[in-house]
Design goal:
The complex is a heterodimer of chains A (571) and B (201).
Chain A: E1 3-4, E2 12-18, H1 22-33, E3 38-41, H2 71-76, E4 104-105, H3 133-142, H4 152-166, H5 191-204, E5 209-210, H6 221-224, H7 253-259, E6 263-266, E7 269-277, E8 282-290, E9 296-306, H8 310-318, E10 343-344, E11 347-353, E12 359-362, E13 369-371, E14 388-396, H9 410-416, E15 422-431, E16 439-447, E17 453-458, H10 463-482, E18 486-492, E19 524-525, E20 528-533, H11 548-567
Parallel strand pairs in A: 1-9, 2-3, 2-9, 3-6, 4-17, 9-20
Antiparallel strand pairs in A: 5-13, 7-8, 8-9, 10-15, 11-15, 11-18, 13-14, 14-15, 16-17, 19-20
Helix pairs in contact in A: 1-7, 1-11, 4-11
Chain B: H1 3-13, H2 20-30, H3 45-58, H4 72-83, H5 86-101, H6 109-137, H7 143-149, H8 155-168, H9 171-177, E1 179-180, E2 188-191, E3 199-200
Parallel strand pairs in B: 1-3
Helix pairs in contact in B: 3-4, 3-5, 3-8, 4-8, 5-8
The chains are: A alpha/beta (571), B mainly alpha (201).
């Protein structure tokens, strides 16, 4: 083993951040802006903003398989392929080859990863909703799992802080279920969508708004300073945006951190272990292995932020064994790796829309409508707990309608060059309850090619989720029907598993009691306070809203606390 | 007994700890699934002529390029090789052979058109049967194994989808059919003008 144990200056920083994705980027930004020298460790290859977006400006004909996934790619990206066409030539480079990075499924788990600079922030859905007050209270009120150690008010200013930096387009509505944030101008709704929104309020008293999305509709000075420009409405975000129109670590937090000249980034560097010092009872650094050269090195710091993505963060904790923590760092409670949550999806309804023949859209909206949770809210009461939100909208059909129609020849060809009728549909994102038996752990024997124990998944949807899914389909059909739309058809995919929402979370939860949780209210490991976990692993419940903005708000709050504590010499 | 069967019997001994999807997953990381059956998909020169002729009848050359101009026939063969498995290879070749048997290439244009209309009408029923089969498969744990045995998408559906995809996403087809706007720069709700073409992005 090529072990470099020099604790020299080049290997010593104020803080180490493991991961460069949504929360790693934010941690690096917040810590460097507060004066800390930060080392960011990314396990995957380097992607440079703009210059490495190889597919961004290509025309449809420049992709051999025109958006379809080849058999070879489907085999290399076998987990990604459960989602759909992620492994096509447009976007595959920002997902991870599952064949080269295998994992084990005791029960099926759809694990979608992004091993490169920016992680999943490169291709996130960009939907950005605050959790509401009741989301933070629900566990305690219903006796589910454990209580959150924080409330909405603890995150409120930090939501605002990150929303301004990220740049979220949206409409403030004043609804308790979907707290308003700081928004750039909202994107417009199409004519059938305006009709749908008004009809839902009138007939079912259900609010509908346009999605709150991390695309710049009106860049602010702090966005343009980082080289970001307005959204161009191409809706090709997941190829990487050369305009910086949507937010990613690459377009936002990493450039901001680099501006401080206090950021060092290592790529191809896999964190294998957090080094615990039995004398100081703190972490003193991180052991890493280079994914290409296999060289092992150690880096040292006063504090460590874990932002490797919920599953890899938990794996890193479990693999960091010491006399004090024989089952993994911070795992006194045996809860590390448990309580996996996500949002369950693949259920909703579609319909055709009569009328609005002369309405059309110029540009592609990288966004949809949002229907906030209405189940078990206010006076509504169902036989399952929690609820779901819907995302979807109207679209005018294009040439693809011809595939399932009868007809061919000259007039058919001519007809296909013109827009067709409108269709409308949406799918739900449902809250998943925390359950300690939904878990991941490290295999005792099998290791990956870097000698790191392989991750085993053992999780499934519970009765609450399955009951909710029936209602998600029925309510979607009910709403499309109430709008007077035709050919309403519901769908409820039965071949989805936890993970497919790509919102995997909960594997190192916060809590008030060290006996039942890993992290305190500032995301510090209870008995190793200089280690902070601020990615999705920290979540105590999942709400039903897209989680990234919450993770980022938690990260900024936690980074602020870390620096204050360092100043007080408490860490 | 092949390796998969060995794994299955081990699973039974362990009290069925591992479900079929797990075994599939084990396949994935221990010995990734073998390649596609692309090598088995062979199209004769005569069959290539039929593919080109049918593609051109679906999207003929008019005031704008046709399927042949846009390179669609070669695209169809490449796509079937690269993106489809045995069931579709079988159903596609079956459809082509049926046309071969009826001496398709020697027919007049109107006879060819009539024949394809008949194929299209027959496909409606075939699609219904196909969808019933897909629904039955659902979350069946041996899904991948079943998928190898079932009937693929009907010939006409494959032919039409790949012709349209190949044509309307080709540079010639796309630019001559639509109003190509790679960088819209703005988002506006508008009213259609008479005879307005679709935007393509």
């Amino acid at each position: 083993m090529n072990l470099n144990l020099k604790a020299d200056k080049a290997h010593t920083f104020d803080a180490i951040v493991v991961g460069s994705g949504m929360t790693g980027g934010m941690a690096a930004k917040e810590l460097t802006e507060r004066g800390l020298q930060v080392l960011m460790i990314e396990r995957g290859r380097e992607v440079k903003h703009i210059e490495d977006y190889d597919t961004a400006m290509k025309g449809p004909w420049e992709f051999d398989h025109r958006g379809k996934v080849s058999i070879q790619s489907a085999e290399e990206y076998w987990a990604n392929s459960r989602f759909g066409s992620l492994a096509n030539e447009e976007t595959a480079e920002f997902f991870t080859d599952d064949k080269k990075n295998p994992y084990i499924e005791k029960r099926p788990f759809d694990w979608i990863r992004a091993y490169h600079t920016g992680g999943k922030s490169m291709h996130w859905g960009r939907q950005s909703y605050r959790m509401n007050k009741k989301d933070f209270e629900a566990n305690a009120k219903e006796g589910i799992a454990i209580d959150w150690p924080i409330r909405y008010e603890d995150l409120e200013t930090w939501y605002a802080h990150v929303e301004k930096f990220v740049g979220i387009s949206g409409q403030a509505e004043g609804w308790e279920v979907l707290p308003d944030g700081h928004y750039l101008p909202a994107m417009p709704m199409s004519a059938p969508e305006v009709y749908f929104r008004d009809t839902m309020m009138k007939k079912l008293n259900r609010p509908v708004t346009v999605g709150r999305v991390a695309n710049l509709t009106r860049p602010q000075p702090w966005h343009t300073e980082l080289g970001r420009a307005s959204c161009q409405y191409r809706s090709k975000c997941s190829r990487g945006c050369p305009y910086g129109g949507y937010y990613s670590s690459l377009s936002g937090s990493i450039p901001a951190a680099r501006k401080t000249q206090k950021l060092t980034v290592l790529h191809d560097t896999i964190a294998t272990e957090i080094i615990y010092d039995e004398n100081t009872k703190k972490a003193k650094g991180v052991r890493v292995i280079n994914q290409n050269t296999m060289a092992v090195e150690e880096f040292f710091s006063k504090i460590v932020f874990l932002n490797a993505g919920s599953m890899n963060t938990a794996a890193l904790l479990l693999n960091s064994k010491s006399s004090r923590f024989p089952t993994g760092l911070g795992n006194d409670s045996d809860q590390v790796g448990r309580n996996i949550m996500d949002h369950h999806l693949g259920v909703g309804a579609n319909a055709t829309v009569d009328g609005f023949e002369n309405d059309y859209i110029f540009g592609q909206r990288p966004n949809a409508l949002y229907i906030p949770r209405f189940r078990n809210w206010g006076t509504d009461k169902k036989d399952f707990l929690r609820g779901y939100g819907y995302q979807g909208g109207a679209s005018k059909s294009d040439w693809k309608r011809g595939i399932t129609m009868n007809g061919f020849g000259a007039s058919f060809k001519e007809d296909m060059t013109r827009p067709g009728t409108w269709t409308m549909g949406f799918g739900g994102f449902g809250e998943i309850l925390p359950d300690p038996s939904n878990r991941m752990f490290l295999d005792k024997d099998k290791k990956d090619k870097w000698g790191i124990p392989m991750i085993v998944f053992d999780a499934a949807f519970g009765e609450n989720e399955l009951a909710m899914r029936k209602d998600m389909m029925a309510s979607a059909m009910e709403m499309l029907d109430a709008a007077g739309f035709k050919n309403v058809s519901g769908f409820n995919r039965t071949d989805t598993h936890p993970g497919l929402g790509i919102h995997d979370m909960g594997t190192a939860r916060m809590g008030k009691d060290p006996k039942t949780s890993i992290l305190n209210k500032f995301n510090q490991i209870h008995d190793c306070k200089n280690v902070f976990v601020t990615d999705g692993a920290a979540m105590v419940s999942s709400s039903c809203v897209n989680p990234s903005i919450t993770y980022m708000a938690m990260t900024a709050r936690s980074a602020n606390h870390a620096v204050e504590e360092l100043k007080k010499q408490n860490l | 007994m092949n390796r998969r069967d060995v794994l299955k019997s081990v699973a039974l001994m362990l009290g069925g700890t591992f479900s079929a999807p797990t075994l599939l997953a084990m396949d994935h990381w221990q010995n990734p699934v073998s390649g596609s059956s692309a090598a088995d998909f062979v199209v004769t020169d005569n069959q290539k002529l039929i593919i080109a002729e049918v593609a051109e009848l679906i999207i003929p050359k008019t005031g704008t390029p046709g399927a042949k101009d846009a390179g669609v026939p070669a695209f169809i063969v490449m796509m079937l090789k690269d993106c489809y498995k045995t069931p579709e290879h079988v159903s596609f070749l079956e459809g082509i052979r049926n046309l071969e048997k009826k001496d398709f290439l020697s027919l007049t244009v109107s006879q060819k058109t009539e024949m394809l209309k008949q194929v299209e009408n027959d496909t409606v029923e075939q699609m219904k049967a196909y969808q019933v089969q897909q629904t039955k498969m659902g979350d069946n744990e041996d899904r991948e194994q079943m998928a190898a045995q079932v009937k693929g998408l009907p010939y006409w559906r494959l032919m039409k989808e790949l012709t349209m995809l190949g044509y309307f996403t080709s540079e010639e087809g796309l630019k001559s059919s639509f109003d190509y706007v790679p960088i819209p720069g703005k988002l506006e709700m508008i009213k259609l003008k008479p005879n307005q073409k679709s935007f393509a992005y």
